[in-house]
Amino acid sequence: MEYRYEAEPRSYEDYASGRVLLNAQGTTAFPVRLASEIYQQGKAYLANKGRTSGYTLYDPCCGGAHLLTSIGIRHGGDLKRVVGSDVDQRVLDIAARNLAMVNPDGMQTRIVQLQELVQAYGKSSHQEAVESAERLLALVEQRNRTVDVQCCIYDAIGQPSSSAVLDELNGQVDFVFTDVPYGDIVQWSADSADPIGRLLGNLMPRLAPVSVVAIVADKKQSVDHLAFRRLKKLKVGKRQIVFLELNK
Ligand SMILES: C[S@@+](CC[C@H](N)C(=O)[O-])C[C@H]1O[C@@H](n2cnc3c(N)ncnc32)[C@H](O)[C@@H]1O
Asked: I need a labelling partner for 29 at 20 to 30 A (CA). Which of 23, 67, 97, 203 fits?
């Protein structure tokens, strides 16, 4: 895949899972450079259709929300709302704590926690994390307004059910960006012949008329649904990245 927006090599270590952003056990953190590239390619599609900012971004398999949080920190100026959901209650506490860092109050709280660790243990890794968090704080403070962040439990491939958080999103989601289960570390919660088809079907009522869906999966999984049109497909190592929109 050609990097169009994150073409210049740079360090993303401030976003490393377990440094400032917390690591949710049993989930995989998504590469920050790739996340930012995919986000910007999706944004270019929305901008081309006249939707330039104020996006609602949703990840229906959010895990510890490392992906959403890195996008929220780097691209929060475009975003009105960031929402994650996951079927596993155990990861949602971490997701909430990570998502809080999209805004200055949450990042300041994290800096205080990290400073307490420096005081208690005097480790250089904690001091480096404080320095990373201070750089990230400067980034989130630049935008001068907060992003609404929320997360909740929801089965993305189950029978549709009501959810106070997600039902409020109906017709409002501009951008779905998700890294679905694959590989040995994370699996779908239930057997399904076509989990991504089910995911797409469940997403339909949430989507705004102009919206884009970016799904990252391994190459074995089919990314297809009759109600969606494929915009493009990229390949990066073992992953496929498929961009889709609703058929009109
Ligand atoms: C690859 S991980 C996502 C990691 C996330 N992108 C991050 O950066 O932290 C995939 C997630 O899908 C979740 N998952 C599995 N089955 C699901 C389902 N039926 N509905 C919603 N989430 C599900 C897993 O619990 C796991 O957290």
From this structure: 203
Using one digit for the tens of pLDDT, what is the confidence trace for 183-234? 777 889 888 999 999 999 999 999 999 999 999 999 999 999 999 999 999 9
Q: Is 200 exposed, middle or buried (0-12, 13-18, 19+ CB in 10 A)?
A: buried
Rounded distance between C-alpha atoms, residue 78 and residue 16, angstroms: 22
**Given the CA of residue 68, which atom of ligand 1 is nearest to it?**
8
State in Å, rounded, how far the first CA of the chain is from the last one.
28
Ligand 1 pocket, CB under 6 A = 24, 27-30, 60-67, 86-88, 91, 155-157, 179, 181, 186, 188-189
CB-CB contact of 211 with 175 (8 Å): yes
Other residues' Cβ atoms within 10 Å of the Cβ of residue 64: 31
Domains and CATH numbers, the chain: 26-103+146-246 (3.40.50.150)
